[in-house]
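hiii so um. not sure if this is the right channel but i have a protein structure encoded as tokens and i wanna go backwards to a sequence. like what aa goes where. can anyone help
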């Protein structure tokens, strides 16, 4: 490099000046490109807001990294927050409490002793999910179905689909589960897929498949995917793992669906896929899948529909009498893959989901094959090698037990409950004056937020609801709460609405009582520009999760 510089210097100032000018122009073009992109996606007001947010973020980050009193104070507050979490999650043992198991017992426990320990650990939960006051998490909870799952699990507890020669029944069960789910979503004879450990893995597999497809067929080495702002965080994880650039598109402020005009503007030669939700996790809104399909076909791109939360409800909506659901599955021509959680509204045991493709030409790109391994030819359809055949058996048994009529009946009840809650919030003056339903949710999730101009801390409302026994989900950007109705919520809609009225009234009349607790924590987390602070706190939380 020095030789080149010296040669240019010897030849006079013009070449150096020309190179400097070229570099300056390239720099300016890059800045202008970023500004243009921001204006296209956010508009002028949104771009200015984002600029101020970015400046605040970098200022805070710089303060944290420097040995200043302000930086020390921020880090000290992070440690204090984590200490409070530790006190709540991992309290010190009380006198007489059994010691935790930190080493193997010298001698194995007998069955009676082990049963007592299992019962003790099970009693540690403080939320009664069978009360019907828990958002999501447990989607059926019936004792009869749990007994069927337990029986199937026990019969196949040693099985592993990695060895189909040893466990042919499990192989057949998985194939049948996939076939049944493909049929529910109108995948036709060419439709295919496989079982995964959950929605996140299903989404990871779709993203990996499309990355490989784009590299193989188009030579793309800097892949990008385009998704709504409200897409599940599993897409962030997939992009982090697989080195894909994630382009998030803002949602329409009126209907909370992704803006198709901005999706099309974001498509470029590196785009490998589009994605939409049916419905999304935060607000329960179904994206315009038909509109995304038209864009996917026009630009010859794969389109993934994340139906993990919609699960079997979405497949049964029409039969359950809900005719207002727009087309979203393989009947839409541009849809090339779908993720569906059987362990949500399929009521299967936790740890089961299905990733589906329109045909095997897409699916083969998710596979991993190592033909030259010294241990033999190795291949697996998804991330895991060994997989618990017991979960496959539990899923299979659940689906056969519930049947189409059972799922349609559950859909009618669960969606009916969610719509009753949404309608009550819209129509009851005691609620509609202060809070509103976010968008127009059509399935099982109802999100609420404070009306514009109303001074109401929605996270404080969550605190009051928690005291009444409700376990709801706090959301951010915008600040909101949601309830994901389950089979256990059915019949509790009246109780929910009355408790919500009391909570709103309590927070309005006594706002000073809710400056601390989770209301303060969630409010702080949503307002911090430097997200690395939040990330540090969450990282500490994950560490605490693994503390005995």
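sure thing!! here u go:
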């Amino acid at each position: 490099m020095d030789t080149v510089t010296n040669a240019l210097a010897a030849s006079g100032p013009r070449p150096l000046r020309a190179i400097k000018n070229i570099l300056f122009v390239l720099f300016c073009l890059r800045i202008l490109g970023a500004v243009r992109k921001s204006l296209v996606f956010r508009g002028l007001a949104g771009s200015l807001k984002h600029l101020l947010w970015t400046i605040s973020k970098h200022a805070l980050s710089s303060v944290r990294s420097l040995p200043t009193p302000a930086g020390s104070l921020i880090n000290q507050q992070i440690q204090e927050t984590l200490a409070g979490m530790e006190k709540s999650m991992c309290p010190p043992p009380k006198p007489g409490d059994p010691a935790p198991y930190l080493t193997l017992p010298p001698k194995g426990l007998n069955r009676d002793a082990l049963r007592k320990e299992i019962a003790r650990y099970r009693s540690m939960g403080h939320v009664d999910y069978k009360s019907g006051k828990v958002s999501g998490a447990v989607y059926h909870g019936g004792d009869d179905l749990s007994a069927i799952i337990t029986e199937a699990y026990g019969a196949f507890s040693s099985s592993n689909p990695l060895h189909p020669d040893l466990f042919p029944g499990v192989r057949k069960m998985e194939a049948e589960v996939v076939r049944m789910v493909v049929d529910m979503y109108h995948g036709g004879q060419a439709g295919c897929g496989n079982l995964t450990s959950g929605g996140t893995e299903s989404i990871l597999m779709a993203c990996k498949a499309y990355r490989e497809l784009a590299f193989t067929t188009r030579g793309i080495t800097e892949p990008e995917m385009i998704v709504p702002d409200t897409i599940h965080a599993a897409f962030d994880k997939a992009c982090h793992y697989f080195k894909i650039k994630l382009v998030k598109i803002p949602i329409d402020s009126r209907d909370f669906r992704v803006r198709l005009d901005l999706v099309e503007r974001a498509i470029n030669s590196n785009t490998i896929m589009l994605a939409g939700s049916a419905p999304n996790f935060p607000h329960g809104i179904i994206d315009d899948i038909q509109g995304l399909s038209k864009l996917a076909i026009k630009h010859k791109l794969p389109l993934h529909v994340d139906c993990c939360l919609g699960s079997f409800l979405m497949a049964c909506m029409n039969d359950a009498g809900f005719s207002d659901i727009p087309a979203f599955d393989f009947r839409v021509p541009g849809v090339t893959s779908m993720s569906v959680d059987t362990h949500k509204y399929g009521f299967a045991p936790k740890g089961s989901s299905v990733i589906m493709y329109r045909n095997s030409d897409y699916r083969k790109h998710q596979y991993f094959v190592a033909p030259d391994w010294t241990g033999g030819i190795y291949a697996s359809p998804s991330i895991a090698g060994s997989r618990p055949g017991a979960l496959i058996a539990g899923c299979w048994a659940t689906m056969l037990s519930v049947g189409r009529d059972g799922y349609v009946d559950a859909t009618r009840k669960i969606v009916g409950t969610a719509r009753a809650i949404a309608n009550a919030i819209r129509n009851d003056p005691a609620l509609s004056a202060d809070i509103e339903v976010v968008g127009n949710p059509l399935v099982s999730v109802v999100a609420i937020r404070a009306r514009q101009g109303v001074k109401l801390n929605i996270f404080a409302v969550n605190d009051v609801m928690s005291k009444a026994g409700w376990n709801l989900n706090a959301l951010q950007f915008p600040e909101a709460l949601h309830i994901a109705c389950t089979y256990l919520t059915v019949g509790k809609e009246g109780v929910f609405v009355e408790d919500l009225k009391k909570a709103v009234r309590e927070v309005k009349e006594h706002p000073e009582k809710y400056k601390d607790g989770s209301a303060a924590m969630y409010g702080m987390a949503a307002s911090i520009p430097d997200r690395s602070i939040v990330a540090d706190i969450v990282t500490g939380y994950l560490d605490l999760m693994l503390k005995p």
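oh and Residues 13-65 form the longest helix (53 residues).
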